[in-house]
Amino acid sequence: MRRLLAALAVAIAVLVTVGGASAAKPAPAAGFTDFTVSATPPNPAGTVCPGSTLCSNGAAEPAIAVSPKGRFFASSENGLGGGTMAWTSGDNGRHYSSTPSPNDVSTGSDSVGQESGFEPGGGDTDDAVATAPNAAGNYNAYVVSLSLANIDVSTSTDNGTSWTLNPATSLPIDDRPWVAATGASKVCISYLTAPGVLLPQVGLHVECSNDAGHSFTQIANAYDTSAVGLAASQGGSRTGNLQFDPSNPSYLYTVFAYENIEDGPNPNAFLHNVGIAVSSDGGVTWHDYPVHVNPDITAKYDNQFVNIAVDNAGTVYVAYSDNHGIFYQYSTDHGQTFSAPTQVSQGTDTAVMPWLAAGDAGKVDLVYYQAAG
């Protein structure tokens, strides 16, 4: 996937919704400063980019999150066993400083530019930031990374100066982890497990910690026994990100593309439906609902990835791609029902990897990759 995206031209669309009305329009001409952050390891932690000859790396599939005060945290995979690279920006994204590898705390420090051997993590990564400050006045940052044996959750309480590594689970993992945080110290992760682990079918497990990621004592399966949940667990699925409702953090959401159980034996069937898992009690129990059900079994909605965001009024937005178009839908009743799909992208050129960011009531931004046509 990373090679495909490297070959695509980037197209950005901004989606503005007010009172349920929506319109897609090109992004403004005044744009972005594009630069490459430094590799960590082997470059020393603290390298600031742009501005250094060390601002180059070959990492892939980055993630980014921002605190309520505007500090950015980013991470990227360095390959299983190679640790995770991370950066932070305290000037609204104008410069990024590399941090110690969040996974490296178990084997030593690479802050002087030396790799310290095998590091856990280094696979698929995601980031989250607390919504309330800790006792020191900072917002806890979390980097989750896929490991060979488990999922690693690294926590920084000091703006990325140091990290604490906490393996969250030892269950065999089938797909990438996602992370979401709320309050000063609650953080949750989600991941798919292979059949035979706790259940005879695929499970979408959500684990939550109330002590800033040091222990994960709450675990649940987000696939329920509804028609949607059973189809996702038995027919096949691919998950998207995890998201708290900022207006009511008792609500926690995750999304997925799935196929029907009867589609499994059909080689021409793909993940042609989109579903949502909803928890109203902070991840303890879950209920699954359809977002979009397409009778055309050749449709494919897991084009990296189904994505979800929630605005400050609790409106839920879901975006997805069928490889040639980017679509979005919204819900005002906590994911139980959704609007009809609206296509945001223009034309039929390859369009993948939608990502949403929601803010004030009725306002959401959507970005995606689209091939130049």
Give a concise summary.
By secondary structure, the protein is mainly beta. The protein has helices at residues 2-6, 227-235, and strands at 10-18, 21-26, 48-49, 60-66, 72-77, 84-89, 96-98, 125-129, 141-146, 151-156, 164-169, 178-182, 186-193, 203-209, 218-221, 237-244, 252-258, 273-279, 287-293, 307-310, 316-321, 326-331, 342-343, 351-358, 364-370. The longest helix has 9 residues, at 227-235.
Write structural notes for this entry.
With 373 residues, this protein is mainly beta. 4% of the residues lie in helices and 40% in strands. It has helices at 2-6, 227-235, and strands at residues 10-18, 21-26, 48-49, 60-66, 72-77, 84-89, 96-98, 125-129, 141-146, 151-156, 164-169, 178-182, 186-193, 203-209, 218-221, 237-244, 252-258, 273-279, 287-293, 307-310, 316-321, 326-331, 342-343, 351-358, 364-370. The strands form 6 sheets. It has a 5-stranded antiparallel β-sheet with strand order 3-7-6-5-4, with no helix packed on it. Strands 2-1-25-24 form a 4-stranded antiparallel β-sheet, with no helix packed on it. It is globular.
